């Protein structure tokens, strides 16, 4: 049916002032344009225009999921605790999991994700390899009790998400669907008009070892990433491999010396005191891991001018936890002067790979008020393991081609995971393989942040005046702006509005009795992709004015050609985005 709305009846309460709560562009504009309203911290109501854009994103996602054979379902947001206990995540997930109890005393949670529900569903129905592969998806609300919800839809507690889950008999089938999903996610980003990069990532609480994030590049993005122009390498800094280029000041072995450093507790203070570069010091951080029933100390050594990546620390020593204040007291070690020399028996020393070959380390002496200079690995202490430990930074070398990495910030709009048997084994979900042997499903998990994608589009498509939607996501495609509320101007505006709707264009008419400046300001704020401006002077010359919101360019168009011209423009803009997304 044609979509033709009137501003006089449209519930879109715009705001002139910037709300104090809004910190980023998308949050400010969604509130000012009357698209969302805050209900509670991290929880928002979608008003008609916001809901229309959200629904368009959902429809793009549905089309891409259907295209690769994933089938839509609807799963409950309220999930029984026993399923999460089966998977082992009831205790492990942490305080973000909102737990509740019903009147009978049974425990439930509000689903932040649906691996448990879908695994339980499929394990009770799919019994044979003949039923595989199977891919199911839903578009639903999620709830995560974020400790600090912020940035509007970018970091909310309640949000709309598309999550898909696939079940496979073998790794080849899982990889094939993972690749198909990845391509579909790229097409979704393209159709939304997003400038994005697929990046290597860390799986977090979902689990699995193979995962890729799709990042919309944005100054306000919460995630830092590095990428290489010389090849396709890109990664979230939490997961990025890196080659740190080092040029130590001392290249020949020297006798180790113990130096009194009273009151020195940081690398900056140490380098100033010793008159050396932080680059030539080594920072040591302590962790603990359970081994053979005992708590074992782990010392992580990284260049003094770099930061330890906790994710990489866990990759190097699975299960390790960095020490808190209680841990330092438990092991009676000095927090401000740790080092690898003379460590407690049984301590595992893990050093960043970039330090391998350096013969002179400036390190803590494991004694308050003292440090060691010219400590040499293999002579003065032993390194148990060399590993990539540092947070990647722009200027590091690409691990793939050796080029120089660049940095950017991004908004994670979607992510794909290979879960393997993480959930199928713990939850007893298996099938009868072709050889007659019972085997656990291999699983994949694939998420699109639908409401987050809405905010990401705005972050990339906005200016000082408001939003400038891509036509595929805009709440409506065209706004007709008659600059007078009566007479010929109003009549022509009404006629163009009706004819555009009849031509299949989504159109709104600003039929309010308002000044032209008010109409222009609201049209730019809301971000209608194309504006048909009908004025008395233009009609006298037989033309209307057509404004492209994204470019700001205004063009005079003969009145007789206006409807055909605008309809063709909208169709062309849609086709241009679709042409970038060739289906497999």
What would the keywords be for this entry?
584 residues; alpha+beta; Rossmann fold; BirA Bifunctional Protein, domain 2; YbaK protein; 3 domains; 9-stranded mixed β-sheet; 6-stranded mixed β-sheet; 15 helices; 29% strand
Gist?
By secondary structure, the protein is of the alpha+beta class. The strands form eight sheets. Strands 4, 8, 9, 10, 11, 12, 13, 22 and 25 form a nine-stranded mixed sheet that branches. A six-stranded mixed sheet has the order 1-29-28-30-31-32, with helices on both faces.
Per-chain topology:
Elements: E1 4-6, H1 25-32, E2 36-40, E3 43-46, H2 48-67, E4 71-72, E5 78-80, H3 81-87, H4 89-92, E6 98-101, E7 107-110, H5 115-123, E8 134-143, E9 158-168, H6 171-191, E10 196-200, E11 210-217, E12 223-227, E13 234-236, E14 257-260, H7 267-274, E15 282-291, E16 294-303, H8 310-316, E17 321-322, H9 325-331, E18 348-352, E19 361-364, E20 370-375, E21 385-387, E22 406-420, H10 422-426, E23 430-432, E24 438-440, E25 442-449, H11 450-460, E26 462-463, E27 466-467, E28 478-482, H12 487-502, E29 507-509, H13 516-526, E30 530-534, H14 536-540, E31 543-548, E32 554-558, H15 562-579
Helix pairs in contact: 1-11, 2-6, 2-11
């Amino acid at each position: 049916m044609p979509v033709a709305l009137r501003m006089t009846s449209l519930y879109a309460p715009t705001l002139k002032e910037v709300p104090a709560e809004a910190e980023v562009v998308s949050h400010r504009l969604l509130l000012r344009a009357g698209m969302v309203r805050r209900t509670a911290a991290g929880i928002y109501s979608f008003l008609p225009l916001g809901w229309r854009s959200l629904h368009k994103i959902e429809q793009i996602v549905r089309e891409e999921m259907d295209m690769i054979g994933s089938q839509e379902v609807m799963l409950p947001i309220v999930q029984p605790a026993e399923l999460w206990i089966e998977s082992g995540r009831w205790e492990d997930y942490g305080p973000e999991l909102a737990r509740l109890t019903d009147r009978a005393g049974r425990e439930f949670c509000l689903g932040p994700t649906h691996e448990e529900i879908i695994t339980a569903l499929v394990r009770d129905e799919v019994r044979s390899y003949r039923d595989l592969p199977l891919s199911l998806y839903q578009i639903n609300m999620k709830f995560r009790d974020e400790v600090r919800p912020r940035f509007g839809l970018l970091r909310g507690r309640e949000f709309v998400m598309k999550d898909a889950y696939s079940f496979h008999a073998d790794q080849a089938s899982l990889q094939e669907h993972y690749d198909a999903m990845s391509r579909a996610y790229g097409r979704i980003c393209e159709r939304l008009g997003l400038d994005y990069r697929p990046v290597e990532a860390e799986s977090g609480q979902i689990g699995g070892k193979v995962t890729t994030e799709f990042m919309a590049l944005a100054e306000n993005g919460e995630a830092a990433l590095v990428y290489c122009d010389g090849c396709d390498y890109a990664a979230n800094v939490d997961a990025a491999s890196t080659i740190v280029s080092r040029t130590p000041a001392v290249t020949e072995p020297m006798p180790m010396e113990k130096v009194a450093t009273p009151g020195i507790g940081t690398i900056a203070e140490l380098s100033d005191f010793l008159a050396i570069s932080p680059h030539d010091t080594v920072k040591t951080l302590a962790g603990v891991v359970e081994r053979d029933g005992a708590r074992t100390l782990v010392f992580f050594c990284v260049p003094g001018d770099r930061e330890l990546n906790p994710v990489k620390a866990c990759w190097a020593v699975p299960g390790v936890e960095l020490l808190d204040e209680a841990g330092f007291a438990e092991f009676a070690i000095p927090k401000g002067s740790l080092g690898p020399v003379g460590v407690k028996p049984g301590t595992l020393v893990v050093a960043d790979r970039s330090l391998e070959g350096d013969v002179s380390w400036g390190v803590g002496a494991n004694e308050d008020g003292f440090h060691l200079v010219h400590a040499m690995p293999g002579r003065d202490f032993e390194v148990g393991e060399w590993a990539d430990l540092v947070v990647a930074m722009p200027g590091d070398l690409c691990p793939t081609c050796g080029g120089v990495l660049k940095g950017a910030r991004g908004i994670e709009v979607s992510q794909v995971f290979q879960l393997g048997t993480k959930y199928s084994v713990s939850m007893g979900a298996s099938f009868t393989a072709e050889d007659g042997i019972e085997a656990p499903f291999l699983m994949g998990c694939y998420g699109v942040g639908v409401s987050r994608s809405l905010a990401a589009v705005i972050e990339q498509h906005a200016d000082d005046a408001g939003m400038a939607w891509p036509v595929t996501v805009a709440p409506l495609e065209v706004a007709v702006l008659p600059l007078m509320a009566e007479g010929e101007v109003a009549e022509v505006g009404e006629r163009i509005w009706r004819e555009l709707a009849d031509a299949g264009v989504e159109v709104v008419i600003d039929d309010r009795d308002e000044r032209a400046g008010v109409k222009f300001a609201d049209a730019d704020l809301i971000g209608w992709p194309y504006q048909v401006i009908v004025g008395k002077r233009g009609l006298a010359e037989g033309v209307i004015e057509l404004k492209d919101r994204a470019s700001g360019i205004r063009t005079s168009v003969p009145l007789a050609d206006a409807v055909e011209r605008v309809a063709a423009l909208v169709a062309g803009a849609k086709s241009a985005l679709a042409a970038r997304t060739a289906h497999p």
